[in-house]
Protein 1
Amino acid sequence: MTIHQNLIGGTWTGSNAIENINPSDTSDIVGLYARADAADVQAAIAAAKAAFPAWSRSGILERHAILRKASDEIMARKEELGRLLSREEGKTLAEGIGETIRAGQIFDFFAGECLRLAGETIPSVRPNIGVEITREAVGVVGIITPWNFPIAIPAWKIAPALAYGNTVVFKPAELVPGCAWAIVDILHRAGLPAGVLNLVMGKGSVVGQAMLDSPDVNAMTFTGSTGTGKRVAMASIEHNRKYQLEMGGKNPFVVLDDADLNVAVEASLNSAFFSTGQRCTASSRLIVTEGIHDRFVAALTERMKSVVVDNALKAGTQIGPVVDASQLAQDMDYVEIGKREGAKLVFGGERLNRETEGFYLQPALFTEATNQMRISREEIFGPVASVIRVKDYEEALAVANDTPFGLSSGIATTSLKHATHFKRNAEAGMVMVNLPTAGVDFHVPFGGRKGSSFGPREQGRYAAEFFTTVKTQYTLAG
Ligand code: ADP
């Protein structure tokens, strides 16, 4: 098997490789991927620093053309890349192809942004002086990504970084180097000058840490766990660098008595269990008022029985496996914790055997949960959800907001009054009415509040806040 290497200063390099394993079939090796060490990371950062002066002054048409070309190739190869994604991460083929299309759309959007970057001209408070406000690239951007969106998250960090003239050192999650390698290869062949985009695959504690420890990384964008996010923050404060964090969620989905039962059940099923519950926007707390509670639980449980959990690449599969053995163990631990805490397991939670050896888990639903239980407070990051019974809308809103996190929040209701009040009062970065808490557009801001996020929003025009720095220029008119 050939080794997929790291890209450092425009050269593919590295011979120390590890296997990328398919979670739907552990006998299937997706490929061999190089592991960088700290010296490789330093070389990548030096290459990005050297490439910055020229790239940050490059013409906007050159950047536009490269990002457009990358978008076109991703779109043309969507079936193949979507398959690679499903094979290495375990989400279904439809989800894998959908995510690949989204990556292509993101590169297309930021190709357009290259041509739309504008500043402001403002009269000075002093006569005869002009003030211009411009945006400039920040410098070398470090990008650290998680395994759950192997192509979309790298795309939504790399595309704006390059569009606004930054150079990049990119470290993908160890479990999903395949999609990361593919988009770096695409961008490299699309014509990026050497050193503008560097790929360093490998362990977080080695590769990620070496990025955090470098004084030459000017900005760090991170998506992953709360614990690692804190390390990114501390190291960034130490080096006085800009940083942006997207971390966990414990997203609530409120179901009111007046909800359309079908809408409520389908949205809950989707948000709690699709993509194997491995989305930071997944809803794991279903907060249900007492008038609809029993009907909702009966309908959701019935619906869960018909969901097909199997090999991600198989036609008809609706939910793929959990990403790896340690995540599966963690999910199953939480099922035990929920039972011990006194919640009632009404469906699922057991390991499943399928034709191929993989990490299959039957989606689990608890009822009789309280918001104080660990299963209601800690992010599980798997197909495990609990129903919390509440008296009325006021209690539902209070429970929804009673969490250390604040990424996404949803409600199922036919009441305009409650929907409007909820949109205004949900303590979250994103609010959904009669829609799943997961599943967002690529051209509008993404991000949260409280323990979920830190720094400017990602995606859409708002991405400029993080990936540029503002300069205020004063000129005497003469
Ligand atoms: P999860 O694996 O639960 O998504 P992590 O925070 O462990 O969350 O991983 C997210 C990303 O952070 C991965 O690319 C991982 O390799 C990286 N990472 C893990 N530990 C460190 C660290 N000490 N320094 C920098 N990056 C790290």
Protein 2
Amino acid sequence: MPQTPAAPASSDLSGRALFPHRHLLSIADLKPWEIRFLLDEAEQWARANRGHARKHDDRLAGMTQINAFFENSTRTLLSFEIAGKRLGADVVNMAAATSSVKKGETLIDTAMTLNAMSADVIVIRHASSGAVALIADKVDCPVLNAGDGWHQHPTQALLDALTIRRRKGGFEGLVVAICGDVLHSRVARSNMLCLAALGAQVRAVAPPTLMPPQVEMLGATPFTRMDEGLEGADVVMMLRLQNERMDGAFIPSAREYHRLYGLTPERLAIAKPDALVMHPGPMNRGVEISSTVADHPDRSAITEQVEMGVAIRMACLDVLTRAARGVEGWA
Ligand code: ASP
């Protein structure tokens, strides 16, 4: 059952709109009630998406959504595109491989170009941490961060939180083990902040070479031994080895990594008997996760994560464009 959002403190509301953010750049910018509010909004879309053959709502009709992806994506790009289309926006995808970025255009010039097209909302993915915030600063419409370098992937953390809430009922006291290449993972950074803000006990489980320094600052307790990190976990979230971000050798070999940190049925047995298995994708089967675990019909929530991705992105696109649409109380 979805939780009702805690009423925002009056200090949160005084002199401001109910959702006081123009952009969605980082989970660190959101208060716990704002996260719960977005989850509740998405819950409605999750139900609507499952319930009807005709999924259009069209509240963004006449608005232009540009998806500017400077880094590869399958799930995130597709689900932002589906989300925008279900809300009736004119959705345009700009892939970096075919854009002027390849010809040496600067980020600021790209931002100015996107702005000149009078977009109403821009979704950006970029390989450099902070690049999305830089573009957000230069454009006149809301910007959603679809992943910037190692830094943040806020809609991934929100969709993961929604999946957990639907399966586990809430977050208070829930033990969530985030395992694998935590160092290079924006998914891990966003999730640690998000789940800790919602009251979960978050563990970062990684080899010493793949553990970020001061991970406690992000709300997680570090574990360098997989078995210890999994003990009593309610949720086991696996991460891909982000080879494209590795500069040097962080693990002896993929085989050795799987032996020590791969999620196999035997390892999963160390967690709680009903522990939920999650993975943001793309998965490297046989490296961080075995197929038996990934495809487990009851324990794996991996396809549900993808499903919740559409609902969360619909909620975020709706909420962030409300001011421009003049929705009461959002100016
Ligand atoms: N799809 C996620 C991301 O964009 C996770 C991954 O690539 O491993 O960060």
Protein 3
Amino acid sequence: MKRRTFFSLSTMGTAGFLFAESRLKTTKYDQRGDIKVIATWNVPNAVDAALEQLNQSASALDAVESGCRVEESDTSNSSVGKGGLPDREGKVTLDACIMDASGNAGSVVFLEDIEHPISVARRVMEDSPHVILAGDGAQQFALEQGFEKTNLLTESSKAAWKKWLETANYKPIINIENHDTIGMLAIDNQGNISGGCTTSGLAYKKRGRVGDSPIIGSGLFIDNEVGGATATGMGEEILKSVGSFLIVELMRQGKHPQQACEEAVRRIAKKGGERIKDFQAGFVALRKDGETGGFAIHPGFNYTIGDEKGRTLLTSSSLF
Ligand code: ASP
């Protein structure tokens, strides 16, 4: 008997073990062949890029990387990649993470001057023995991997920062932009699920601040037996509830992705008390059978879904 099996039997008893096994079987939501993408916010180009990959039989991992890269290069999106609003010192710092269907993960935090943190995160996952690289070390790794330095601060982001400096009044604002952190989940034609999450974080944050987006379990979590979830909104609050992991675990226990997202938002709201009127947090989830969910604290959150039939923008329901 393998050591691990022995522990299972001894801690749960034989009946418990058999129950756990049969429960696992009934919660395998495997329906091969139905590709699907879900992403936070109104990101048609990113979802189309991911769908294009999936339609050519690419992996879900390739699809989410391609989708996230589109937003990272879109300078009209001021909260992801190039064109992202800077910290208080006028520096754009990027966070991203990625997870594949085998449960591997890679992440970069506080990365400067590199346009595609999602791809650096993938290299961390695939070409380093680590899961997270930060700051100068992450940049050094990116340069060693062949990424090039780019100025991420666009003229319009610089102008917005200069204007902000006039009062330097830092307040978290609900739905800072109609684009925000992009979190993307995809299922490929093999039935495998992967996810990515990329952001420039909160505008005018303190230098060195890192939110939920690059933290496995908070900004993103994937379990290929169950599904995935990803977050957007006030990272400080999402971190404290490990919301994406929670959603995947709730789906494992049988909750529909919509119910699971609602429960994760409720937990954040409960901890947030009075403060929740001042911040937004939202999640999207994708179960292995293609069922989806999305929910936020406040109105204003939307998300994009794509599959073989096309692409749709959905308005999220919310707690308030
Ligand atoms: N979750 C991101 C962060 O806290 C920001 C956002 O989604 O608006 O860095």
Protein 4
Amino acid sequence: MDKKILVTGGAGYVGSHTVLQLLLGGFKVVVVDNLDNSSETAISRVAVLAGEFGRNLTFHKLDLRDKAALDRVFTSSSFNAVIHFAGLKAVGESVQKPLLYYNNNLIGTITLLEVMAAHGCKELVFSSSATVYGWPKKVPCTEDFPLCGMNPYGRTKFFIEEICRDMYRSDPEWKIILLRYFNPVGAHPSGFIGEDPSGIPNNLMPFVQQVAVGRRPTLTVYGNDYSTKDGTGVRDYIHVVDLSDGHIAAVRKLFEDSNIGCEVYNLGTGKGTSVLEMVTAFEKASGKKIPLVMAGRRGGDAEIVYASTEKAERELNWKAKFGIEEMCRDQWNWANRNPWGYGSPDDQN
Ligand code: NAD
Ligand code: UFG
């Protein structure tokens, strides 16, 4: 196999784990990333973890909106497919700075699609999100549920999905898979790569991890009055390595199914876990106590969200293998070995 994949945002959390799985699967990989929310160290660690396959990895530091630079990458290599992770993802920040999000996520994607079309590369896997289900009327969420955008970040995912559907309608040569991720957590079992958000983490597990290593004193639990088993919000947490393998399955589907068109798949486990259950599992894995402060609900949060995994199982032949225990074990292993992520105490806030 010498298929070559362009990975946008490949230095980031999900991207770096997926690049590793691609390399181990025998693919050649070119990463483009502006390192806005990531470190080049992740790329060099992926190359080491990939062993002899590490030589099949190339990195270009560039912003997707720099069309000339992106065009040069496509001129110097010919790609069999693109996996598009690059984007900004902090919900709260998107409410404060909507134009930043619309500019980065929408213009970045449109520029990418234009350059792909100009070079005749029409195979795409895109990182969408369960955020497009909003507060679902029932669970599990199936791919045919009505879609919405709850905040500017969520709307960029919804709009990009619609843009992709329009691209296919306008030109049936496009083959596009939209992957709706549920809640990616954990890290590579080596503890060598993992999630390293800049600033104060927005998401549950990066916050829990920073409490465990002493960087923050307490975890604030947003809401304990939901109609759930213990009153806290329920989500579908998925190990990042399982999620990455879902991308390999999607890329293979693009190559094998000539009639794929523009198709959407949930990537989750199908199981719902509450905030308190997740904290307890992490305490068990780490041996650390996570002090809690109970607070009111966070605006825009849904009560219970988890995936129907049937379509991905049936059509991508992919199913998550890891449970909460492995997610917390690997998250702790990464945190314990890298309490300051890829950086040092001096460059944190
Ligand atoms: P991340 O921030 O770790 O990775 C995104 C990468 O894209 C970063 O390395 C960043 O530097 C890069 N990037 C951003 N804008 C860019 C631009 N204009 N040009 C070039 N590079 C750019 O995020 P992640 O958790 O790995 O998420 C990857 C994708 O999956 C994102 O699109 C995100 O919205 C989506 N997603 C993530 C989650 C989650 O909880 N992690 C859930 C659902 C969907
Ligand atoms: N939570 C806390 N305290 C925190 C952080 C989160 O109690 O400090 C709770 C939330 O209220 C929620 C649960 O933990 O009940 C999970 O919250 P996250 O922020 O980790 O995840 P969300 O499901 O809210 O959203 C995430 C991403 C979205 C993405 C969505 C689905 O932030 O961008 O998963 O993929 F759309």
